[in-house]
Each structure stands twice: as structure tokens, then as C-alpha cells.
């Protein structure tokens, strides 16, 4: 295999970076937290730069996290958690070993992306037309002052979930993702975010990144496609909460998993009331499966979740007739409980959403669309 | 994680994990350069506890870490000490890794165990808030308004009236029956022609009862399937709609669709639909239905025709859903624009040997017709417009061949200022632009001197052609024509406005194809977007006029022009079989 100069240089930088990363981790371990000084944080920042230059992006991100932990410790920040610090050191140690192993096989940097990550997402063209059905959508606001909406799609005939995101700086667009619903998804497509969050579509000339994000580029052609109905959720369907746990366990098979939660589609047999837990500052509601097992809807009481909490209260109320047949969202295990964050309520019989005009839909995105405006 | 199964009922494991956390924490805080001499003892104690819980991996790792710590403490040499410290560090990371994975897996197993424990009281699923039914139905007709499709059906088992409501996406406006559309109800791309000739099987489909009819709308968890029926399948007979004493249809006792004999005839430029007693049925005649009925009257060479129709009564009046025709079978004349097409022979039956008759036969000719070519060759036109008509017709049936003396004829016409579209078309047809450039320039000067303030389509075509041939740069000929085409499109969309003459629209198309270099048949490949019902209006009216031959040459000429328009707009197949 012949490598070009850029690749050879990158591999040379990688070899040096591996040593530096292991060396600094070892020194931090030798010194111990109690003897650390500001220079340790400075060293970590320099190491992050070294990792970046060597193309070790995953490691670089973890080093930045470690730097944040160290800085918190030095500043006596009550948010410092020793366990999180230890886990981050361990993740870097593991990622570095993993990268070293692949490096030792003589792989080219481009073949190591799975292990080392990439600085910017690379979008590869997809030759076949993609038939996509939205599974759900959620609005979000980041700490980095971006507001956005992510739509999750199931590809017909492929066990793959794609995502389309629309993000804008809060400085210009405020921090309410719902305002973005009626904006065009991109300047190249005449579909609003709301359009693409409902219905089914064929994407031609699509480009997707390794993690399933679709690019809204100029040559993308989007047209309507037949709906898959509830079959669209088959790949994510869990008929019992035990299956949800098994799905989560399967996701943890990797020694350094990137996520600890999983997207699932569930059809609860029964819904409990929405309760407000002031101590944990969260809203909860029980979801029971047919065996009576319990999974808990868990939504943090933050400003951007107010809308969702209102929707949850209306959704589970028995007299409103808006209990959905299914829920799409994210499940995870925490504090010995199975928890669930709902993105979208799915109705097997269509509902009417009054938003600018009347829409006949089967899915209501709970962080974006109000159940107050939904009728049977 | 072979250690895990032994732990499920053990409350000591979380305590062990907590103590391990604390010990590891002290190593991370205090550092390993100078480890606490008690650490190996503490680690061995934890290792014993892990062993007693059956955690072999933890036991091994804790003991190894203790040994390596002891080796580190015992080492005095500088390089040896560094090696020992590295070994401790690596083993520590392995232990932390094990602890992290174990803790996650343990949490999953504990949650799984809890789910199992809490799942002793089965919960009855809340019943759906809507009733569902399974049925086999046969569709008798459809209504289509915008994207909303209503299929009127009968249950095959109990003759209940059933309505399927659907929402179509990307359906064809001009030919919804024969082109695929995306259906929400069927969750697929469907051809309505196939849906309307198959049994629709509904399985546990949500249903609503409205006005005595069962209404099925798109559902998410289920979708109907189509069952193809055998050739000659006889669908259930619909009830006959009774007539009142005065002969008007009485829908009061009919739920859903029923049968009615409807007589269609044309009088004073209108198509009326009456009962056999001659009383108006009240059925609205849409442009497509009107065009179909005129074609039917022309095809059958009759003044009025009795239709075996399926009709449903709606709030705004009765609606014709379907007609059973001897030749077409079950058909849907309100939506299907291809019905009842006369054959070329039927249309040319009254065309004589006049120039108009030859033109009509030429546009209807499907292959080279030697007799027709001979008749055209033998025709002696007496002026340039007749020459144009002959060559225009000949172009439909034979390859171009320059008739003797034609350049002189054209030259004389240009010099005399008789250079309408026809003359310039002849120049283009026979490639005489260079040969006659002087005459064309002379004509151009005269043409511009008298260019009318409100030019006709012929004037516009001439100006575009002259600008292109003489490379006059004051206008871009294509853009110039496109601009006028936009005005034509707007006028075509408005049903109140009158369309320009069919022949003139064809000239416009022909000019475009000359300028773009497209083939003659694709003259309107750059779609004119004239709505099909406007074209149908022109063609069917011309058919009606020409059907008896009483209109003489003008009738034949109008039909020729209309058929050329249909051909140029790619709609000929809607009108001629």
C-alpha cells in the first residue's frame, strides 16, 4: 500500500502523539489529583492540540473533557465528580490502546476513522435512492448557543436510521426550536422542517456521513414516497421493556461505547399520571408493558422541556382521548431504573393538527407540536 | 461477564463496588508515585470479598494489582521503579475498565430482574379508541377532488355500502386513472385503474359510520390489499335507482351508489344528461365528462346515447361514478380522459379529396399512405398559402423532397410581401435560408416597416424566425417566444379566455422546434402546459363539427388543426384510438 506524503506525515505525528498521550496520562496517575496544578490543565490543552494534529479526534475530544474535569477540580467546582474523571482517563487509555493496535497493522489514516474519529463529518454519496419515513423529531438547544431540530428517518429495506438536522445560532433565531418548523430545511430545498418531519420521501443523490447524518446539499432531490405506516418502526420496536433493556445491553457490547442510550419504539399497555419530582427536578410518568413491567418517562424540568411536559400531561390524560398507540424516543438505564425520553407520539388512526392549516397526521412530535391543537 | 449470574440476589455486590470505588478514588487522588503501603492489603481484602461473591475476574485483577504495587514499593532502582509503576498503571486501568463494564452490565441485570419482579400483574392493553372491521369490498366508482380520493364500494359478503377515503400524492392531473399515484390508504404507489378492477381486502381497519355508510380512512397499523379478480368477474349488482312519478331519480331509499340509465345528448352546444323519460338527472357535466361524451357520440355516430351508469347522490347533487360501455367495459368518464376514442377511419370517413380533406387524412395517417401521397403530389396549389397547406400535410406522411419551382414560388411571395408564417415555414422546411437570403432581408425590411402594434401569433413567429436567420440582435428569438408563450399559458389556465386558433398554436410550436432544432414531432416537447381539458374542448368540438361532413372543408380543416394541436401537445392518444 503506497501512502501519499500527507498520510505519511499524519502517521508520523500519530506515532509521537501515542507516546505523549500515554506519557501524560501516566504522569497524571503518578502525580494524583491532590498534587495537580494549573500546569496540568495547560499540558492537557497542549495534548489535545497534539491529538488533533495527529488526527486522533476521538481522543482529542476525551482529552478536552478531561481538561474540564481537571479545571473543575482545581477550581473546587462542586460539579466535579471523581468517578467521571476516572472514567474519562480510562476511556482515553483505552482509545489510545485501540488506535495503537490499528496503527500497528500499517493501516492508512483513512482506514482508521472508526477508531480515531474524524474532525469534520465526511458525507459519502449514496448511489441508490433512499426511501425514508420520519420516525420522530425533536427540538433542542445546545450549550454552544445553537437551536435546532433533528428528524430521525427509517430507510425502507435497510436497517439503518438516518438523521436530518436543521441548526441555527440562537443569537439570530432565539432559543425556541418550534420557530424553525416553518423554515425551509435548507436554502437548496423547498421543504420546510415540518414538511420533512411528516410523510415519506425519496431522497435521490443523497450523501450521508458514517453516523447516518444526511447532507442537505444542492444536488439533493427530495420527492414524496409511499408511507410504510407503523411498519417503519419495526426495526426499533420493542414489545416488552425486557426487550428494551436487551437492546441497550447490545449497544454496550463495545468496551468504549459512544452512547449509553438507544432509540426505541414502544406501544405501552398503560400510561401512568405525570408526576413532578421536585427533588430530581424532573417530570416522570409510568409506562407499563403487557406484563406490568414499568419504564419511566423521565424529562428534566428545564425551560426547553416545558412544552414537552405540557404535552405529556395532555397525552396521558384519560379524558382527552389523545393517548397514543405508540411512542418513539430514547431509552436508557439510570439509578437502577429503565427510563425513556419521548420524542414522538404515534397514533394508528390519524389525528388532525391545526398548525397554520389543518394537517392530517399519524405522528405528533412532542417537543415541537402542541397536543392542544390536535383533535381526533 | 461470566461473573454476573451469581450476583442477582446478592446485596453485597453494590457494597463491594462502592468500596472498590473508594479505593480506586484514593489511588487517583493520592497518585501512584508513592503509594500508600496499606493499599496492597486493602486490595487483597477486596479480592477476597470478590472471590466470595464469585467474581473471578475482579479477584484476579485485584490480586495482580496488589502484587504489582508491592513490587513497586520494593523496587529501589530508578528505571526498575519506572517499569513497575507502568505495570501498576496498566493493571489499574484494566481494573477500572472491568469495573465500568461490570457496573453497566450489573445495572442492566438488576433492571431486568426488577422488571421481571414487577411484571407479575399483567396489564390489559387499553382498547383502541376506534372500532375496526375486516371486509372484502368491490369499488364501483371514484370521486377525485384535489388530492382527496373517495372510492365508492360494496361489501361482497353483505352488500353494505362502504366508502374508502384516501389522500393521493403526486397524482397526475390529466390522467389520474392510468398513472401511478402515492396513496396513504394503501401505503404504496397505486394505479387507480388496478384498484378499480380488484377486490379490496380490509383487515382490522379503523372504521367510522357516516350516513349509513362505513367509511375507511388511511390507517397507520394496517393497509388494504388488492385481490386481482378473474377475467369476466361479475361484481355484485347495485340497486336500481327508482324514478319518481315525473321521471326524476329518487335517491331517498338508496344508501351509497345505485344504477341508473342516463341518456346523454348534445343540443344547442350543451351536453345534457337526462333520464329515459327526458327529465334532467341533475348530474353536473365536468369538462372531461363532456369531452368523453362528445367522443362517444362521434364514435357511435349518434345524436344521443343511453348510458348504463352508476350514480351516487351527494350533498351538492348526483354524481356519475361509472359507465358500463360495450367496447370500453367498466369505465370512469368523469376522471378518465382516454375514453370512447373514435378510430382514424371514423374521423376521416367524411374527408373528401379537397385540400382540407387531404390534410385531415394526412394528420390521421399512421403509416405511409401511397394513395394519399399521390393525391398530395397531384394537387396543384394556386397560391403560397395553399402550397403551405399541401407541404404541411405532406410533411406528416412523407420525407421532404423539394418540389420543382418551389424556390421561385417562395421568392415571388417574399418579394410580394406575402411572407406569413407559411412562407417562412416553407423556407425552413426545404433549407432555403441561404439561397433566398436577399429576398428574406428584403421581406424583413418590409415586415418591420409594417409590424403591427398588436401582432398575431403568425407575426410573432415570423419575427422570431427572421431575427434568428438574419442574426438580428435586438431580441433573443427564443426568449421572445417564451415570453409570449407565458401569456398563452396564463390565458389557457383561465377558462373564461378564448384560446388562440389551434393552427396558430401549432405554428408557435413549430417555430420553437425550428429555433431549438428539435424534431418536428416534439414540437411542443417544451411543454406548452395548456390544460388537457382546454385542448379536449378544441378537439372534441372540431370532431363534432366534422362528424357529419356537412360543414364541408371548414369542418375538416378545423378538425385537422385540432388534431395537429393534440399531436403537438402530446395528447393525441386521448382523442384518437
How far apart are the termini of chain B? 76 Å
Q: Quick one: overall form of chain B?
A: elongated
Sheet/helix structural class of chain B: alpha+beta
Overall number of domains of chain A? 3
What is the 3D shape of chain A? Answer: globular
What Rg of chain A is obtained from the alpha carbons, in whole angstroms?
Answer: 23 Å
Q: What oligomeric state do these chains adopt?
A: heterodimer
Largest sheet of chain A: 9 strands, mixed
Strand content of chain A: 25-35%
The largest pleated sheet of chain B is described as: 5 strands, mixed, barrel
Mean pLDDT reading of chain B:
85
Rg from Cα of chain B:
42 Å
Count of individual beta strands of chain A = 18
List the helices and strands of chain A in order: HHHHHEEEEHEEHEEEEHEEEEHEEEE
Give the largest interface: A-B, 60 and 59 residues
**Spans where pLDDT lies below 50 across 5 or more residues of chain A:** none
Question: What does this 3D model show about the protein?
Answer:
The complex is a heterodimer of chains A (376) and B (577). Chain A is α+β, with helices and mostly antiparallel strands and 376 residues long. Chain A folds into 3 domains: 5-116; 124-227, OB fold (Dihydrolipoamide Acetyltransferase, E2P), CATH 2.40.50; 232-375. Chain A has 9 helices and 18 strands. In chain A, the strands form 4 sheets. In chain A, strands 10, 11, 12, 13, 14, 15, 16, 17 and 18 form a 9-stranded mixed beta sheet that branches. The termini of chain A are far apart. With 577 residues, chain B is an alpha+beta fold. Chain B has 18 helices and 13 strands. In chain B, the strands form 2 sheets. In chain B, strands 1-2-3-7-6 form a 5-stranded mixed β-barrel. Chains A and B meet through helix 1, helix 4, helix 8 and strand 16 of A and helix 1 and helix 4 of B.
Amino acid at each position: 500500500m503506497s501512502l501519499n506524503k500527507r498520510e505519511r506525515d499524519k502517521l508520523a505525528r500519530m506515532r509521537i502523539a501515542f507516546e505523549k498521550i500515554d506519557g501524560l496520562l501516566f504522569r497524571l496517575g503518578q502525580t494524583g489529583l491532590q498534587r495537580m496544578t494549573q500546569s496540568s490543565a495547560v499540558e492537557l490543552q497542549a495534548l489535545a492540540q497534539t491529538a488533533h494534529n495527529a488526527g486522533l479526534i476521538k481522543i482529542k475530544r476525551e482529552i478536552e473533557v478531561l481538561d474540564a474535569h481537571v479545571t473543575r477540580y482545581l477550581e473546587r467546582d462542586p460539579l466535579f465528580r471523581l468517578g467521571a474523571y476516572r472514567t474519562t482517563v480510562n476511556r482515553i487509555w483505552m482509545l489510545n490502546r485501540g488506535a495503537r493496535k490499528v496503527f500497528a497493522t500499517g493501516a492508512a489514516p483513512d482506514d482508521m476513522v472508526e477508531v480515531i474519529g474524524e474532525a469534520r463529518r465526511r458525507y459519502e454519496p449514496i448511489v441508490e435512492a433512499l426511501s425514508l419515513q420520519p420516525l420522530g423529531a425533536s427540538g433542542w438547544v445546545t450549550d454552544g448557543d445553537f437551536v435546532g431540530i433533528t428528524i430521525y428517518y427509517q430507510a425502507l429495506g435497510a436497517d439503518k436510521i438516518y438523521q436530518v438536522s436543521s441548526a441555527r445560532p440562537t443569537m439570530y433565531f432565539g432559543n425556541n426550536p418550534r420557530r424553525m418548523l416553518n423554515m425551509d430545511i435548507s436554502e437548496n430545498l423547498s421543504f420546510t422542517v415540518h414538511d420533512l418531519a411528516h410523510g415519506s420521501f425519496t431522497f435521490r443523490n443523497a450523501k450521508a456521513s458514517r453516523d447516518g447524518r444526511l447532507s442537505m446539499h444542492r444536488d439533493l432531490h427530495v420527492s414524496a414516497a409511499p408511507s410504510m405506516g407503523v411498519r417503519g418502526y419495526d426495526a426499533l420496536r420493542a414489545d416488552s421493556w425486557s426487550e428494551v433493556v436487551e437492546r441497550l445491553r447490545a449497544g454496550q457490547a463495545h468496551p468504549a461505547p459512544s452512547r449509553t442510550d438507544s432509540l426505541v419504539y414502544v406501544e405501552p399497555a398503560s400510561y401512568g399520571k405525570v408526576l413532578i419530582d421536585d427533588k430530581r427536578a424532573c417530570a416522570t410518568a409510568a409506562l407499563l408493558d403487557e406484563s406490568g413491567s414499568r419504564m419511566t418517562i423521565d424529562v428534566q424540568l428545564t425551560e426547553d422541556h416545558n412544552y414537552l411536559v405540557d404535552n405529556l400531561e395532555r397525552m396521558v390524560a384519560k379524558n382527552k382521548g389523545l393517548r397514543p398507540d405508540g411512542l418513539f424516543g430514547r431509552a436508557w438505564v439510570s439509578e437502577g431504573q429503565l427510563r425513556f425520553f419521548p420524542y414522538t407520539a404515534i397514533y394508528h388512526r390519524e389525528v388532525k393538527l391545526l398548525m397554520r392549516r389543518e394537517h392530517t397526521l399519524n405522528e405528533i412530535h412532542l417537543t415541537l407540536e402542541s397536543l392542544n391543537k390536535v383533535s381526533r | 461477564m461470566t461473573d454476573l449470574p451469581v450476583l442477582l440476589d446478592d446485596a453485597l455486590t453494590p457494597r463491594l463496588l462502592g468500596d472498590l470505588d473508594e479505593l480506586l478514588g484514593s489511588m487517583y487522588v493520592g497518585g501512584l508515585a508513592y503509594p500508600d503501603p496499606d493499599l496492597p492489603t486493602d486490595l487483597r481484602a477486596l479480592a477476597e470479598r470478590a472471590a466470595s461473591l464469585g467474581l473471578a475476574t475482579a479477584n484476579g485483577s485485584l490480586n495482580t494489582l496488589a502484587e504489582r504495587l508491592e513490587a513497586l514499593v520494593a523496587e529501589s532502582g530508578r528505571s526498575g521503579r519506572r517499569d513497575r509503576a507502568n505495570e501498576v498503571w496498566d493493571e489499574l486501568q484494566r481494573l477500572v475498565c472491568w469495573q465500568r463494564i461490570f457496573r453497566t452490565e450489573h445495572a442492566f441485570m438488576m433492571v431486568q430482574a426488577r422488571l421481571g419482579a414487577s411484571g407479575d400483574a399483567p396489564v390489559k392493553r387499553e382498547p383502541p379508541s376506534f372500532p375496526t372491521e375486516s371486509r372484502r369490498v368491490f369499488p364501483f366508482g371514484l370521486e377525485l377532488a384535489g388530492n382527496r380520493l373517495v372510492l365508492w364500494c360494496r361489501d361482497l359478503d353483505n352488500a353494505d355500502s362502504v366508502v374508502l377515503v384516501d389522500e393521493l400524492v403526486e397524482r397526475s392531473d390529466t390522467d389520474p386513472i392510468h398513472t401511478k399515484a402515492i396513496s396513504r390508504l394503501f401505503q404504496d404507489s397505486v394505479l387507480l385503474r388496478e384498484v378499480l378492477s380488484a377486490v379490496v381486502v380490509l383487515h382490522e381497519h379503523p372504521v367510522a359510520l357516516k350516513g349509513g355508510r362505513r367509511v375507511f380512512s388511511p390507517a397507520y397499523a394496517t393497509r388494504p390489499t388488492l385481490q386481482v379478480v378473474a377475467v369476466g368477474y361479475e361484481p355484485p349488482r347495485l340497486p336500481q335507482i327508482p324514478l319518481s312519478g315525473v321521471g326524476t331519480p329518487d335517491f331517498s331509499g338508496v344508501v351509497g351508489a345505485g344504477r341508473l340509465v342516463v341518456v346523454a345528448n348534445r343540443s344547442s352546444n350543451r351536453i345534457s344528461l337526462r333520464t329515459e323519460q327526458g327529465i334532467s338527472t341533475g348530474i353536473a357535466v365536468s369538462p372531461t365528462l363532456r369531452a368523453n361524451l362528445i367522443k362517444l357520440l362521434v364514435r357511435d355516430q349518434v345524436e344521443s346515447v343511453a348510458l348504463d351508469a352508476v350514480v351516487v347522490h351527494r350533498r351538492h347533487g348526483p354524481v356519475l361514478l361509472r359507465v358500463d360501455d360495450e367496447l370500453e367495459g367498466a369505465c370512469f368518464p368523469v376522471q378518465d380522459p382516454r375514453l370512447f376514442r373514435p378510430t382514424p377511419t371514423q374521423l376521416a370517413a367524411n374527408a373528401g379529396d379537397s385540400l382540407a380533406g387531404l390534410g385531415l387524412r394526412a394528420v390521421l395517417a399512421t403509416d405511409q399512405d401511397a394513395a394519399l401521397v399521390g393525391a398530395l403530389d397531384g394537387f396543384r396549389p394556386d397560391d403560397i398559402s395553399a402550397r403551405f397547406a399541401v407541404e404541411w400535410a405532406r410533411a406528416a406522411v412523407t420525407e421532404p423532397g423539394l418540389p420543382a419551382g418551389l424556390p421561385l414560388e417562395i421568392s415571388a411571395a417574399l418579394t410580394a410581401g406575402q411572407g406569413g408564417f407559411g412562407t417562412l415555414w416553407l423556407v425552413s422546411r426545404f433549407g432555403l435560408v441561404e439561397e433566398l437570403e436577399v429576398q428574406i432581408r428584403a421581406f424583413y425590411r418590409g415586415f418591420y416597416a409594417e409590424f403591427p402594434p398588436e401582432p398575431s401569433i403568425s407575426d410573432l413567429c415570423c419575427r422570431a424566425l427572421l431575427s434568428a436567420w438574419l442574426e438580428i440582435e435586438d431580441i433573443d428569438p427564443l426568449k421572445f417566444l417564451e415570453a409570449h408563450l407565458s401569456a398563452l399559458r396564463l390565458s389557457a389556465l383561465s377558462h373564461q379566455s378564448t384560446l388562440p386558433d389551434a393552427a396558430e398554436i401549432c405554428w408557435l410550436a413549430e417555430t420553437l422546434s425550428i429555433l431549438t432544432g428539435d424534431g418536428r414531432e416534439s414540437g411542443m416537447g417544451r411543454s406548452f402546459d395548456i390544460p388537457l381539458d382546454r385542448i379536449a374542448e378544441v378537439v372534441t368540438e372540431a370532431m363534432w363539427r366534422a362528424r357529419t361532413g356537412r360543414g364541408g372543408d371548414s369542418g375538416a380543416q378545423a378538425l385537422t388543426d385540432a388534431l395537429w394541436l393534440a399531436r403537438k401537445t402530446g395528447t393525441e392518444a386521448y382523442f384518437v384510438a
